[in-house]
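During the first year of the project, the team set up a workflow for recording each protein of interest as an amino acid sequence followed immediately by a discrete structure-token representation. This format lets reviewers and collaborators read both layers of information side by side without switching files. As required by the reporting guidelines, we include two representative entries from the current panel. The first entry is reproduced here exactly as it appears in our internal archive.
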Amino acid sequence: MDYVKPGEVLGSMIETGKNKANLSILQLLVKGFLGGAILAFATTLAFTATQQTSLGIVGAVIFPVGFVMIVLLGLELVTGGFALIPLAVMERQASPGRMLSSFGWVILGHLIGCAVYAVLYGLTITKMGTDLSHPLVQMLIQTSEAKTLAYKQMGGSGLALVTIKAILCNWMVTLGVVMAMTSKSTAGKIAAMWLPILIFFAQGFEHAVVNMFVIPAGMMLGADVSMADWWLWNQIPVLIGNFLGGVVFTGLMLYVAQKGSLRRGAKAPVTGAEMAEPDGRALSVAGERL
């Protein structure tokens, strides 16, 4: 049977959180770089589909391809780690310091990866800066301004709104991470994780890593958005909201719901989606790395 029982999934969540907290700085940076860049690729693909069809739902259906690639390659998304590493800290298998260090280095990797893709993609759609007529140019500019200036105009209510949308977003994103652990087959993992990611993207919720690409890309192309607008009215509150959504609504709630069936002291079952590092430690590459 491909299905993995909830108690085993919870054990995998904790074990993976511990492994993530113990990654080296170089690993965190490189995995974060690749995770951010691949998610940016998926974002422009989804925007292209939306522009071509005038149907946002089409972009939402396509967007999870990036998440799937990141999951199956065992790369890093800090938003997924928000649900996993805190559980390892609760179980005293990782320290708060290691958790914060992991988050910080992965975020830095995301910023670099998203910036590199933003520059290369911007040069592509503007024909090396000579033509701004491509429809994605205006779409990125408008999205960048909508994700910052629109909240700024609302003041305190805008900060509350963007934080709530971030909570809702990462509730689904981290469910995608966990859902990937419920199957031992590659096809099962893809199907399971696809659904929550589609849900968040289709409803326009706020994802920190997507925004690390969309907002600066729009700024590079001429959006009337400052660095302060980006960080104060989107990036910081979205990171906070994503953390709350992941740790509270996925991590803690699943922990409370399933802790009675947690197989303490037992390693997560090694499946075909796992591989061993040279020192023999089993590391999953099927979603637990997010």
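The second entry, processed by the same pipeline in the following quarter, appears below.
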Amino acid sequence: MARDRKRQQETDLQERVVFIRRVSKTVKGGRRMSLVALVVVGDGKGNVGLGSGRSAEVPLAIQKAVDDAKKNMFKVPITESGSVPHAVEGHYGAGRVLIQPAVEGTGVIAGGPVRPLFELAGITNVLANSLGTDNALNMIKAAAEGLKELESPEQTAERRGLTVGEMFVGKEN
């Protein structure tokens, strides 16, 4: 029963290859070439994972990256409008990514490597900007760190010992 449920969860996961890069290691006899693949896996309902794999062949590197991404999945709170609950800045190495909520109909306004992360998480309206490096790996890891820091209004209210209604008393929309 548990195995069937796990298999069912894995079937509705989508995977997207962010990049495949050829890297080399210099050894006594010359250079050893291998490939690094960065893959995003998500179900479009708030669960998303990021993984990398390394191998001499492309399909093997992608498969290793997918397995790694499935191991490193996390939950992202998403609003009814398909956005993030609040603005957040993710940091990883020299990478800094600013993630801001957007109104319905905005779409995913995010550059290169972070776009698949938002799409597979199920976020449809968001503004994102890279403030640090243009290194794809550090950018996407910074965006993932930012998404991990997000809290829904329910989680924040629970942490403060209030109800969501009490938390927004006196605020005008």
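For the second entry, the following points were noted during internal review. Strands lie at 14-27, 30-42, 47-55, 73-75, 88-92, 95-101, 108-109, 126-130. The radius of gyration is 19 Å. Both points are flagged for discussion at the upcoming steering committee meeting.
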